[in-house]
DNA sequence: TCGCTCTTTGACATCGGTTCTCACCAGGCC
DNA sequence: GGCCTGGTGAGAACCGATGTCAAAGAGCGA
């Protein structure tokens, strides 16, 4: 967490919850999880903390199809993409060097500048597929 | 528009507004645009119509960073991606054959199934850059 | 053209995620 | 410990999107 922010137990709790999983979680899920665990933190604080972490590049954010924001603490802070399980939220960090160069060249060839790209892969992880088959 | 739906003037107006532009537009923008033009259509109807068009694959949908849905009538119905101007919404349809195969192979190598991918490029188009520089 | 039926419409209520407000609380520093 | 300032949290507000339901109208057969 950033050093110009005061380290409060609420921020530590949110950061800790993120550190403890490799799954993308919504603010509401994290809030509920902290409450269940006894580390009650206000919902507004969860949102503020996630926002601060995201602004500092310490968590990655993505949006579900219906617009909800999901957060995840990634091992690396450099640019990367994700393969996310649409059922449990588990994610794998992936690289796409060919995608990077493709995006840059396509953008430039169309006269666009300041190109950014959104590349996320969604699937069903092996565990979720197994339990779906079993159930 | 789908033939098992009744063709009403409201639906025609929404479809017409989409046909008249190559920019991604939000439901609210379309609603306002129709009202300004005199073709007043209820907001709920705009949403419903866009939903129906999207379900039939007749318009493409994407989400802005803050979760708002944007709609665009694309020339082709086959799978493709977009290079979108983050300022005016103008979009260019693009192909990424290498991205397609990369996505599929990465997904499979991690044991994920039913892989889908989200690939959108964002930039500033030449016109918007020019007016930004001028202003 | 006239009615009938059944979908569609639209004003409004509601929902769900997110952000704002503001009085109170508590780190960090002396 | 005391002060100052940023952080917290309960609830309100906000905003995009969806649900409700009575009234309107498209399509069809007569």
Automatic annotation (TrEMBL), chains A, B:
<keyword id="KW-0479">Metal-binding</keyword>
<protein>
    <submittedName>
        <fullName>Fur family zinc uptake regulator</fullName>
    </submittedName>
</protein>
<keyword id="KW-0963">Cytoplasm</keyword>
<keyword id="KW-0238">DNA-binding</keyword>
<keyword id="KW-0678">Repressor</keyword>
<keyword id="KW-0805">Transcription regulation</keyword>
<keyword id="KW-0804">Transcription</keyword>
<comment type="similarity">
    <text>Belongs to the Fur family.</text>
</comment>
<dbReference type="Pfam" id="PF01475">
    <property type="entry name" value="FUR"/>
</dbReference>
<dbReference type="InterPro" id="IPR002481">
    <property type="entry name" value="FUR"/>
</dbReference>
<dbReference type="InterPro" id="IPR043135">
    <property type="entry name" value="Fur_C"/>
</dbReference>
<dbReference type="InterPro" id="IPR036390">
    <property type="entry name" value="WH_DNA-bd_sf"/>
</dbReference>
<dbReference type="InterPro" id="IPR036388">
    <property type="entry name" value="WH-like_DNA-bd_sf"/>
</dbReference>
<comment type="subunit">
    <text>Homodimer.</text>
</comment>
<keyword id="KW-0862">Zinc</keyword>
């Amino acid at each position: 967490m950033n050093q110009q922010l005061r380290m409060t137990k609420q921020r530590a709790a949110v950061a800790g919850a993120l550190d403890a999983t490799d799954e993308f979680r919504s603010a509401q899920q994290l809030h509920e999880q902290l409450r269940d665990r006894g580390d009650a933190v206000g919902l507004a604080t969860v949102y503020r903390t996630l926002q601060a972490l995201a602004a500092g590049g310490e968590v990655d954010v993505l949006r579900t199809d219906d617009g909800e924001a999901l957060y995840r603490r990634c091992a690396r802070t450099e640019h990367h993409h994700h393969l996310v399980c649409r059922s449990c939220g588990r994610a794998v960090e992936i690289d796409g060097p060919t995608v990077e160069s493709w995006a840059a060249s396509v953008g430039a060839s169309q006269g666009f500048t300041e190109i950014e790209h959104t590349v996320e892969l969604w699937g069903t992880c092996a565990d979720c597929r197994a339990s779906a088959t079993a159930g």
